[in-house]
Amino acid sequence: MELRQLNTFITIAKLKSFSKAAQELQYAQSSITSQIQRLEQELNVRLFERLGHTISLTSEGNNLLPIAKEMLKLSNDAKNIAGSSSKPTGTLVIGAVESLCVTRLPKLFKEYRLRYPEVELLIKFGSKDIFLHSLKDNTLDIAFFVDQKIVESDFITTLEIPEPMALLCSPEHSFAKMEKVYPKDLSDEPLILTEPSCGYRILFNSVMSQFHIKFRSVIETGNVQAIKQLTLSGMGIAFLPQTAVEEELQQKRLVKLKWMGPEFYIYTQALHYKTKWMSASLKAFIDLIHEMDL
Do 239 and 214 contact (CB within 8 A), yes or no? Predict the structure, then answer.
């Protein structure tokens, strides 16, 4: 039985999908399937029920899951003990939303690599729910979010920055020269928004629902760069964190609308699990977050 197999098993159980687990773990799907088959053969049990495209744990799988999580946690703790009082080494697994990886985080990662070249930084992309589960499962050391404020007793907040949101259009758009833009003005305009599960899409929908606004058309994508490009081409009005479009605003390639509705605020946060083993590499990373002006 290999720890890699247990990690794969936990990830499939969490995502309820072999293909999604392969994507998150950056394995070929055939490798994922092979690992689980070998684990099932070694334990002489079936761990997953496979009914069409639906994946669920068997009773034996449910029994193994807490044991597998504890084994991985103990393994990570054991690896970190030797380095806890020495210089940072090993691997630091970081969850980060895409928008932060083009705004606030590159300089943090660069400085950390310069100071601690022996630490391997493994960056994983995903959603808030996946990151929160991964922090609890000890498959992430720390995670960065851009979302409505997360306040949960299971997590320690290392970083918290209010992020103003902006409604944006191209300079050629008819709204670019408007002196005031009210919620009702958006009802007939094409909008370019993140997916419905995104925290700031939820915030936007919540505010618009207060004014009973129904949109004529919405283009949805989870890719921030795609949203920017579609907005630059004049396809509609976008809603993004202002920090994600500072360069385009400075170059006057995008225009921030003069919004007269309620202010939109989300937060950039860095969280780690409250009982997480504080390795030398993680402690150094958290210290650097506090030191740097992100």
Answer: no
Sign for the CA dihedral angle at 233, 239, 240, 242 comes to: positive
Domains and CATH numbers, the chain: 1-81 (1.10.10.10), 164-265 (3.40.190.10)
CB-based contact 146:294 (threshold 8 Å): no
Q: What is the pLDDT of residue 106?
A: 93
Continuous H helices in the chain = 3-15, 18-25, 29-43, 59-81, 105-115, 128-137, 199-210, 224-232, 246-250, 280-291
Using CB atoms within 10 A of its CB, is residue 238 exposed (0-12), middle (13-18) or buried (19+)? buried
Q: What are the phi and psi torsion angles at 139 (to 5°)?
A: -100, -5
pLDDT tens digits for 65-115? 999 988 888 887 776 665 555 689 889 999 998 888 878 899 999 999 999
**pLDDT (tens digit, 9 = 90+) per residue, 210-248?**
999 888 889 999 888 999 999 999 999 999 999 899 999
Residue 267 structure tokens: 């937060």
CA gap 79, 16 in Å, rounded: 29
Model pLDDT, residue 1? 82
